[in-house]
Structures are given as structure tokens and as C-alpha cells.
Amino acid sequence: MANTADIKNGLCIEFNHGLYMVTEFQHVKPGKGPAFVRTKLKNIETGKVIDNTFSSGHKITTARIERRAHQYLYKDDLGYHFMDNSSYEQMSLEEGLIVGAQFLKDGQNVEVVYHAELEKPLTCELPAFVVLQITYTEPGIKGDTATNSTKSATLETGAEIQVPLFINQDEKIKVDTRTGSYSERVK
Predict the structure, then answer these.
(1) What pLDDT does 143 receive?
(2) CATH number of 2-62
């Protein structure tokens, strides 16, 4: 059990029959009335962000979560298969638990977030940026860098994203896994 003085970014709490992570908080002490803490809470299972205000001194229930390094192995009918980097145990996750599943490639390292008491996987997070090769896109035109125009490109994982016109097939690019957008070309 904790109270509002213990709230900080990244704290995982049990709230409204779910697990929420504090993404933003602000302690407010108005000139009139009691102090309170304004928070933005992200549901770990659904990703939905809600605003909530706790009165100062309010008791909150914290939840212990652990981040463990895993390596992506393959995908089949049962889901996506991962191997724990420390114990070498294999496990499978359904696609709904993986943030940015379309950008997973064999051998990639990810972090799986577990509920420590239940030993239940909550979500799987890819690195913020991954480097992927373009397997198909229309040919680029030299000098087409002045406009903000984009074209469709298929990546080695099968995902399709929008890239600038000057990007060619077989080039490697950096992709933001949180937004699914092109970031930069990699040499």
C-alpha cells in the first residue's frame, strides 16, 4: 500500500480492476482547499490513457512488474514465440499483447513485461526504432527531396509503410515502432 506522495512516472498501480502505469503526474496545491495529484494513467493491457485526480493522502495499491529480455524466434498458428535470454525457456504470446508486431523479425531482442506476483505476461515491447530492409517499392527519382510526398514500401517483415520518394528498393531504413512511421535512411 502506498499513497499519493509515492506517485512517480513509471509506477504501476491497480486501479478500477486493471493495471495502469503512471505516464505523467502533477502535484497541485491550490491556494484554497486541499492538495491533489493530477495523473495520466495508461492501461497496460489495452493501451488506453485516462486522466485521473487523486486527493492528497489517498491510498493506492501498487503492482510489481518486471521487464525481461526475450528474443523473437518465429510465428505460427499458436502465436509469436519468444525465448527468455536468461533461462532459455520458450513461450508464445498472442498478437494482441505485442506492440508493433508487424515490425518483428527473427532474432530481434524485445522486452516482455510480466506481472511479478502472477508471473503473467502483460505486454511485449519492441525497441523504439528498428532497422529494416525494403523488399519492394516503386523506383526513386533523383532530386525528389524538395516535397513532402511519400510512396508505399513493403518491408522485409511484410509490413507496409509510407516512405519519401527518394527511397529505393533494397535500402535499409529506420522505422519508429511506436507510430509505424519512417524515421531515416540507414547507410
Answers:
(1) 65
(2) 2.30.30.30
Residue 106: C-alpha distances to residues 82, 100, 132, 157 (Å): 10, 14, 12, 9
In our burial notation (b when 16+ CB lie closer than 10 A, e otherwise), range 47-63 reads eeeeeeebeeeeebeeb
User: Residue 173: pLDDT above 90?
Assistant: yes
pLDDT over threshold 90, residue 152: yes
**C-alpha span between 73 and 75 (Å, rounded):** 7
Per-residue pLDDT tens for 69-78? 999 999 999 8
User: Could you tell me where in the chain the CATH 2.40.50.140 domains are found?
Assistant: 66-125, 129-186
d(CA 67, CA 116): 9
Of all residues in the chain, what percent carry a pLDDT higher than 70? 97
**Where on the phi/psi map is residue 148: left (φ > 0), alpha (ψ -120 to 50), or beta?**
alpha
Fold of 66-125: OB fold (Dihydrolipoamide Acetyltransferase, E2P) (2.40.50)
Type of residue at 167: I
The whole-model pTM stands at 0.75
